[in-house]
Amino acid sequence: MTVPREMPEKWPRVRAPGGAEEERRVRANAREYNEKFQYASNCIKTSKYNIVTFLPVNLFEQFQEVANTYFLFLLILQLIPQISSLSWFTTIVPLVLVLTITAVKDATDDYFRHKSDNQVNNRQSQVLIGGVLRQEQWMNVRVGDIIKLENNQFVAADLLLLSSSEPHGLCYIETAELDGETNMKVRQAIPVTSELGDTSKLARFDGPDTKLMQNSGRTKFKRTSIDRLMNTLVLWIFGFLVCMGVILAIGNAIWEHEVGVCFQIYLPWDEGVHSAFFSGFLSFWSYIIILNTVVPISLYVSVEVIRLGHSYFINWDKKMYCAKRRTPAEARTTTLNEELGQVEYIFSDKTGTLTQNIMVFSKCSVNGHSYGDVQDVLGHKAELGERPEPVDFSFNPLADLRFQFWDPSLLEAVKLGDPHVHEFFRLLSLCHTVMSEEKSEGELFYKAQSPDEGALVTAARNFGFVFRSRTPKTITVHELGRAITYQLLAILDFNNIRKRMSVIVRSPEGKIRLYCKGADTILLERLHPINQDLTNVTTDHLNEYAGEGLRTLVLAYKDLEESYYEDWSERLHRAGSAPEAREDRLARLYDEVEHDMMLLGATAIEDKLQQGVPETIAILTLANIKIWVLTGDKQETAVNIGYSCKMLTDDMTEVFVVTGHTVLEVREELRKAREKMMDASRSMGNGFSYQEKLSSSKLTSVLEAIAGEYALVINGHSLAHALEADMEVEFLETACACKAVICCRVTPLQKAQVVELVKKYKKAVTLAIGDGANDVSMIKTAHIGVGISGQEGIQAVLASDYSFSQFKFLQRLLLVHGRWSYLRMCKFLCYFFYKNFAFTMVHFWFGFFCGFSAQTVYDQYFITLYNIVYTSLPVLAMGVFDQDVPEQRSMEYPKLYEPGQLNLLFNKREFFICIAQGIYTSVLMFFIPYGVFADATRDDGAQLADYQSFAVTVATSLVIVVSVQIGLDTGFWTAINHFFIWGSLAAYFAILFAMHSDGLFQMFPNQFRFVGNAQNTLAQPTVWLTIALTTVVCIMPVVAFRFLKLDLKPELSDTVRYTQLVRKKQKTQHRCMRRVGRVGSRRSGYAFSHQEGFGELIMSGKNMRLSSLALSSFTARPSAGWIETLRKKKGSDGSTAGSPSGAADKTLKV
Amino acid sequence: MKNKTSSPPREGEARPSRCPDNSAFKQQKLPAWKPQLTIATVLSSFFLTGAFCLSVGVCLILSTNSVREIQIDYSDKCSDCSKLRENSSNWNKECHCSVNFMLKEDILGDVFMYYGLQNFYQNHRRYVISRSDAQLLGRNVNIQKSYCAPFTTYRNGTPMAPCGAIANSMFNDTIDLFYNLKSSVIQVPLLKTGNSWWTDKNVKFRNPKSYNLSSAFAGTARPPYWQKPVYLLDEEDERNNGYINDDFIIWMRVSAFATFRNLYRRVSRIRQFADGLPAGNYTFRISYNFPVTKFKGRKYVILSTVVWSGGSNPFLGIAYVVSGTAATLTGFVITAIHLKLRKKKAYFQK
């Protein structure tokens, strides 16, 4: 391999990431020179810490959390003796616990990042250093290095293609990791270097500068709406805390002024305190310390723990494991789970997400006979799931084993020699632009430019018409074992207007025949009138196929007279070399010859949906989730898929298609759509209610209450206009009034914009699901991003919050996991705030009776342990394990999902109810023992009304009340719940007696002052009666309210729980899906993913290996502009404009 | 990005399966008890609770009603003394006064004598912490490190024993009870020990170890408000002296609220007091040492019997009756609502 020491004075101008033009001067293979510019190294680093920096950096980060800083501040306050109302450890123990848990989690995360970084960085590459190829790790590759790549190697940098072993410096790359598309993309080396042989590339951007790393952007830290609400509430609580502090501080000042002054003989003021006012000031801080438990430090940690638990349940879910791809579902973000229960909008990519991106030759109609229906033994159409054996293609050594067909009669027809069937498959084996590669005898590989074509040629191959090889001038086909070489006279290439392609071939017998395949609408008009009867039958078949959501093509042929062809070909040649209007003239000639054709039949290709897509979409729709498909595909494809996955149905009142190219057109189309919807609802609904609605609310709500089902299909360019600032609201309103929205030909950026738009105006939770790099922006923008994993591409997965390998798992993720997560989180939060208010507010009431001195009601150890030991685990168990209805029910009754969308289970109102309950509890918790203890004595006459007994009584009744309350809240008592709830109670008493034991007191007499208290106090019947009364009075009203609510206004979930017995009757009808029988609008599937220009490429022979070229009499043809054509098409092709299409593409524009 | 043709070889077919375990725990299928609020459970719980509360309440009220109690506010009965005590310089002047009262009926059973204080904030934070439990355990500790300030040491450095505001403010009135039987005055025999908690007396409070008590407290001084040092609290009984003096122990167990009563003495059931206190005229002879007027406090002396639920506090009984009634009523209300609703539902179903 020879490589120039220096590139010529022609610097590739590359656009710097971020938009501004930046010039990179790179001298190939000259490290010393390039190092002057200090380009980034190719080392990918996504990790945050190393061993040394971990502790300081992590602590620094953790203390940036407001909550942690707040507790540090409290800790400092507690060290001031005049203020300290609590020992320092009451704060430091939970704080250290919290910091440790978070640090361990961070460390684990970072460990995995290190591991994946290392994996990427240590991939091997061959780099030319000092004229010798060396094995180098990718992380050591520098800008300007020349790299040799071999087949099937990973590329971990942006590269400039210098040359390749393929002719003309062509190079086929797979961009699955970028966009999830598995078909090959062609890149060509720049002409200067293209003849160098072997694939070598120049590193252009490295490491963090690569397009990928640049585009991946900064991962925004996603917060759930519950998070935001929680933060608001914590702020409110904080305000409330300050208010309480102020009230008590004023109380303290007054008390000290009125009472404390007189009491000074027994209790002089502290040194330095000379006025009641200052005493009040100090007591403010003291109260902040003891009341800080209303803002519980363990809240955030507990929430994280619960979410982590939910994430594990997602990871562990066997029903979300795809055995085929061996990928389990994965919750990559552990902080978003409960938002899964609140999703209102789903934005889905099409290819790879809804569809498998596999085209399957499914049915065909030949000469008025339809083949391909799955038949059972009796010859009836069989239902899916009870398929017989597929057709056996073993007679054909060249058959593709992966191809499956279920109707044996077609093969029989081939074997019987039905001429129509033969001609049908002959056409399929000849009329295409597929390239073949035969690695060894009989091992054929087709490089199809569109998967549709691949499917058709493969079908022909299996039925005995094997396309074997081609040269620019010939096509060799094995027809039922016989090798026949056809002379390829012309390819009348595909384009969007023609919607068909033809080939003109000369058979070995010398007959010239034109074979054409194309969209039915176009082709049926171009048939010879003689075909009328056949056309009618075929049309019926086409309708039937379309009804099943298949992509159809019509096939036809025409025999050409030798003389006519000569003349035509002469004219074609002239037109091809004409200086101007070349394309028009060619088109006219094509048009002329593709006329009066004979109908052969039709094919139906199934764009294979992922498993269970229509069912999933149906259930999600019933759960009131709106699904928008955002795809880079063409409109026809997108609409087709919309039908086949039942998003669009022919029952729909109307499907609006917006394809306007100008702002005005788009606006007009949107307006018309809206008017139509409103007209319809006006005529359908009665006038009164409509008028009322109109007068009472704005247009939006009218649109949302629209009767009838509508769908909106909008094109990429129209969308660009629709997303402009002045039209976006209009667009959104229209779109949201529709049941289904399909945006086609959208760029990745537009995908993100659409998501952003909905996020901005709808205040709804959005979920984006996709599989390729072009979905990354949308995945990152949406509240929740889901990546389809288990395929080649991992970019989407890397950017996603959740990943699994099948679209259908989405329903389980949302309806089961999401719903439960939301429910559990809400229940958890309600209880958590309740228990902390009940716990803390007692101090407030006590303040009025202890001279506002910030004396705590409880023992300091109780305060330390209450949140982290006595009450943490039962509520965590509830937050992790609770279930209101079994999982099957949430699938059966998708409406159960609604409370999450409407945010009903935890909102400000619910919060105030919890708080009120907490305060109510605290009042009883204080005043009942207060009443009892006023003049109480023990049954042996000794004192009972002492502070310590009071503390133990209140603490015990508090623990019992909150335990009973959690028991009441827990709807799903697993063994773990039992263990935690009973265990917490047991732990409370065990710790209580341990703390009050002689041994500890002997060791630390000043710390464990409550010695003997537990056994003395808890031996008194009065104390137990007090505890019992408190419990009854705190709990019974809650039971009454809950029951009345249940009785008077039951939620759906309550009803579902109640109607377990009658549920069979109600078994929802939604689940049965209409399978077939819909007479659909026909959708021609030809070359939905086809590009123009390939025919020319083939005829020029440029993409053929020299070995095969040598066989042919290759002469340069005037039409060598294929690459321009390719590029032109690409440029206008919205779908690829924004995808990171590799370096070679960009450099071509130098 | 992949370079050139065909899919990559599937790596590691022998990889361990990534399929999640099919355990009940991981699949969230643990067997569970799913309690539901049904009309039956709710109503039964309300009526049962109501019945329970009512019966407990009635029992409590009946038993507290059987408690006999006499409470006498003597803070102003000895106005001379209270004036005298207002000036703290008169701390060593003795002042005695008597309070007479009459029992119309016998008080049968164990009779307990309490002193009560009102408006004395024993539950104030600074008061509560102002003690050294290590010192009270008889250990030789540096009380400067405790929260006893300002009652730690005298200016000359002599530590106070015991230290702290609680000990310093100990109630130091002495109250004797006399039974006036036909012009003869009989002193009612009172027990001054056995009044405190066993754990306090035997675990929490210990005297420093030495051959005798006064030497054990050598080098320490009495708290400023005390009239005698700690080792002279009860000269008659070695086991009721020093830190383990019952009056001291009881005082050191601070009360939960500003109004409280502490057990002072028990009537010894001997001779004519074997069944309790017989009806008749009695006199409290009080040595008035503890000033309360300064902080607008009151002090009481109380004679009371006890039952299983303690003293004469009627609160718990009443609270139980009220809650029991409320629970029962709620039960009826719920029944009514439920029935009405069912009728309505049935109506709609027709």
From TrEMBL, chain B:
Coiled coil: none
Signal peptide from the UniProt entry: none
Pfam family membership, one: CDC50
GO biological process: phospholipid translocation
Subcellular location: Membrane
Region (Disordered): 1-23
Transmembrane residue ranges: 37-63, 315-339
Database matches in InterPro entries: CDC50/LEM3_fam
Family recorded in the similarity comment: Belongs to the CDC50/LEM3 family.
PANTHER family according to UniProt: CELL CYCLE CONTROL PROTEIN 50 (PTHR10926), CELL CYCLE CONTROL PROTEIN 50C (PTHR10926:SF1)
Descriptive protein name: Cell cycle control protein 50C
Origin species: Aptenodytes patagonicus
Taxonomic placement: Eukaryota, Metazoa, Chordata, Craniata, Vertebrata
